[in-house]
Structures are given as structure tokens and as C-alpha cells.
Amino acid sequence: MRSRRADQRLAGWTVPELLAVILVLAVVVLIGALSVGRGKATADELACQDNMRAIHSALQIYWTKNNRSYPADQAGFEQFVQDPQYFPQEPRCPLSEDGSQHYQYQYDPATDPGPEGITITCPMAESGHGSIPTADGNW
After folding, report:
1. Residue 36 lies in a domain
2. Given CA atoms 12, 18, 24, 28 in this order, what sign does their dihedral have?
3. Does the pLDDT at position 134 exceed 50?
4. Which pLDDT score is estimated for 5?
5. What element of type H or E holds 77?
6. Which residues form the domain of 57?
7. Contact of 130 with 121, CB cutoff 8 Å
8. Is the pTM of this model over 0.90?
């Protein structure tokens, strides 16, 4: 014959055991959710930097095709990024909530007529991105 205590152990988990399991599962889910959130933010930031590099590369092609000149202002730059000859899809900042933000463009040919006179920045002020040259100082 089994004792009453043995029957209780076979019946299921105790309340403290069940609470401990729920607590451990909640912590694991919370850690996973935080990791996914940080991963998305990092991916968006890298996509933004990649867009700016693509814009720099396309500007080199633009410069070659347009008698060694760059777009003069933001309006010319926006026409450039909307041209399917350079971009199959207009590059927009993935960090903006609705994806409608254009990159900001400044060109000062008086100071430096070359690519170093161009600054392309992320429209999201808190991103901290700027114009991204390659390691050798060129695009």
C-alpha cells in the first residue's frame, strides 16, 4: 500500500514549483524580447549606413555622366535619388517611423569641389550618422 504522501507527489506540481517555472519562463521571454528589439535597431542603423554608401557610389556615377558636377542642392539631390537609372527604389531612412524621411544633402563646391565637399546625413537627428567615406578617405 502506498502512503498518502506518495499519492500527493504523483498528483502534480506544488504551487511553489509552478510559480518558480512561470518565473523562469517569464525571465527567458523578457531577455529574448529585449534581444530582438536591440537587433532590429542595429539592423536599421546598418541599413541606413548602407543606404548612404549606396548614395555615395551613385553620386560617383552621376558625376561621371554629368560633366563632373554634383547635384547643386537638396532639390537636385531628391531628383537624383528618385531617378531609377541610379536607384531601383528610392533610398529612405529605415530609422524613420513611416519610412518617408529623405536623406539630407549638402554640397559646397566653393570649399571643396570634389566628393569631400558633399555631406549626406541621416534625417533622424538622434541616429548620429554623417557622411561616410571609405577607409582610404574616398567613397
Report:
1. yes
2. positive
3. no
4. 62
5. helix 74-81
6. 4-127
7. yes
8. no
Residue 24 contacts by C-beta under 8 Å, 6 or more apart in sequence? Answer: none
DSSP string, 29-54: HHHHHHHHHHHHHHHHHHHHHHHHHH
- The string of pLDDT tens digits covering residues 90-124 is 888 887 776 667 788 888 877 777 777 788 888 77
- The reported pLDDT for the residue numbered 132 is 55
Helix (H, G, I), strand (E, B) or coil at 74: helix
CATH number for the domain that contains residue 101: 3.30.700
Q: How many domains does the chain have?
A: 1
Distances (CA, A) of 1 to 6, 7, 9, 12, 117: 10, 10, 15, 20, 91
115 part of a folded domain: yes
User: Is 134 contained in some domain?
Assistant: no
Would residue 135 count as lying in a domain? no
C-alpha–C-alpha distance, residues 76 and 80, integer Å: 6
Q: Report pLDDT digits (tens) over 47-99.
A: 888 888 889 889 989 999 998 889 988 899 999 999 999 999 888 888 777 66
Are the CB atoms for 134 and 112 separated by under 8 Å?
Answer: no
CA–CA separation, 54 and 101 (whole Å): 16
